[in-house]
Design goal:
Blueprint: H1 3-22, E1 35-42, E2 49-58, E3 61-71, E4 81-84, E5 86-92, E6 96-105, E7 115-124
Antiparallel strand pairs: 1-2, 2-6, 3-4, 3-7, 5-6
Length: 126
């Protein structure tokens, strides 16, 4: 092996090492952006419905409130009606937490279509 071939081999190994180091998966989800999921609607009658939802956040994310926004409009927002969620199940590990919650929505009008989605209010802990 001459000097030129030896140098080329060292360069090739260096490039491979950089590629592998650059592709390592970042497992620190402690500041991850919350993901919110709307679950099923159950125990529904003419004026009430029980709804479920969940969210996943990083452990450094503070959730100050969670629940559902609902409206007769197809895209409800927090400016519409809000039903506060009741914590049901919490799972926490080193980097994230998952919470499942339910809410009883009351005061619905019979023969009216409502749209809902789960909602949380959050921010990073100082």
């Amino acid at each position: 092996m001459n000097d030129s071939t030896h140098y080329l081999a060292k360069s090739f190994l260096f490039i491979i090492a950089v590629v592998f180091i650059g592709c390592q998966k970042d497992e620190d989800n402690s500041d991850r952006i919350p993901e919110v999921f709307t679950g099923s609607v159950e125990n529904m009658d003419c004026t009430t419905a029980e709804v479920g939802g969940s969210f996943i956040t990083g452990i450094n994310t503070e959730v100050s409130s969670f629940g559902f926004c609902y409206s007769t409009n197809q895209n409800p927002t927090i400016a519409d009606s809000i039903s506060k969620g009741n914590q049901f199940l919490v799972t926490v590990n080193e980097t994230f937490r998952e919470e499942t919650f339910t809410s009883q929505i009351t005061g619905l009008k019979p023969k009216t279509t409502y749209y809902l989605k789960a909602s949380i209010r959050s921010g990073l802990r100082g």
